[in-house]
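Bench log, entry 3. Co-assembly request; chain sequences pasted below exactly as received.
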Amino acid sequence: MLELKNISFSAETEDGEKQILKDVNLKIDDGFVVITGPNGGGKSTLAKIIAGIITPTAGQILLDGEDITNLTITERAKKGISFAFQQPVRFKGITVHDLISLAAGEDISVTKACGYLSQVGLCARDYINREVNASLSGGELKRIEIATVLARGTKVSIFDEPEAGIDLWSFNSLIKVFEKMHKTLGGSIIIISHQERILNIADKVVVIANGSVKDEGKKDDILPSLLHAADAACKVLTDALEEV
Amino acid sequence: MNNTELDLLKMIADIDSTPSGAFNIRANGALSARHVTENVDIREKEGVSGIEIIIKPNTVGEKIHIPVIISESGLTEMVYNDFIIGDNCDVEIVAGCGIHNCGSEESRHDGIHSFFVGKNAKVKYVEKHVGEGDGEGGKNMNPTTVINIADGGYMEMETTQIKGIDSTKRITKAALADNATLIVKEKLMTHGSQYAETDFTVDMNGENCSANVISRSVAKDKSYQLFVSRINGNNICSGHTECDAIIMDDAHVSALPQITANHIDAALIHEAAIGKIAGEQLIKLMTLGLSEAEAEEQIVNGFLK
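Structure output for the full assembly:
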């Protein structure tokens, strides 16, 4: 189980110090957790704090009861935390096969690597020897990024807005990937997302806005009010546009 | 040959037993071993140090090894090698130079390699440079390659210098006839206080000829690299030159790609990029469980692969 205690984070901006997260307390059990909320609310920052990419200004992170707050990115990865970036990184010279092997922690066979690619909807043999560079589209890179997390098979898998940059056709496959992960991977799957279809397959939904947890609970308890609020916001916007 | 020399041969030319095709092994300034075949003749040049490699027209599938090794500290040499590749050939030539210097004097290999690629011939030329030995003497080499490609000819040149050479100046000059193609792939890594200069000049003289000169390099410590590439489009042709460098520590890298169109239908592109390893690349690999040093090594190895 992952536990966040009083996590706060502040960053220097042009307008002075800005509080991004304030006293966030969360318990994330095994299962499918979707963290949602408005843009700029602190969701991605929180995900990066869990992975060790950002250091919190205050608070504590526990993984299965062990304090991992001061561990490095590498140490947390070795403890079983994976992270799929919202904007995947490109590498000149490193092939898709290389990257998936690095993720798996061993030089895996082409067949096995292709298996992970197939799971994210890529025609594996066409990609396995390609470099993870600018010749790949954003959507292709995104799916390869997700495949690296599948290859790691860790107890905490974090996906930062996996739907961003993915077309509608691929998005349907992505939903199936997460549904399958939900059934087979085990552990905690944490997804930062705004997508209703991803929210619909969650066990737990956490709403973060203005740097704080505004709501959390089972999907069926949280989703109706969340969608109602979204509809209301849409109506306000539509009315305003009509007036213009 | 002693074990040091055999290790060098393995590193530069992947030779660990007698090659099956033609070969000429030069060790410490003298001929060590030579073998010719029905289609490939190798003979001494008259008047100067060096060899002529003459490949009969229509020779297909042969691999020729021309490595040079120096293990005597203080030995310097200059060789002139001519490669005459007949029309319609399809061959691979593996060259390269390895220097092991445990002494205090400079060891140096300089060479002028002239290629005459016949009509519709295809050549892959692989050249690897390696230096080793913990002596204070320099391990230096300065290869000059002069390439003439006849109508419809094709040459692919792969040059690799990954470690150990203290100073090098590589000069490559090429002239392309109608429908000729030249592809150059350079891989270079310098460290310590090493110096490496690369100077390419390609004259695209023939109609519909093409050239692609690509350099990938990593400069570490206090080393210095200078990349100069000139592509001259003198006819209907297409040319591309690219220098991509990773800079680390206190190294210096200069890239000067230059393209000149002397014909209205010459299509030329140059690209040059120098930068440190991106922080997000390190972070991504660290999220896979690699330490920062391991991540850096993977990125550099991949870049130079």
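Chain B has a mean pLDDT of 93. The helical segments of chain B are 3-13, 279-287, 292-303.
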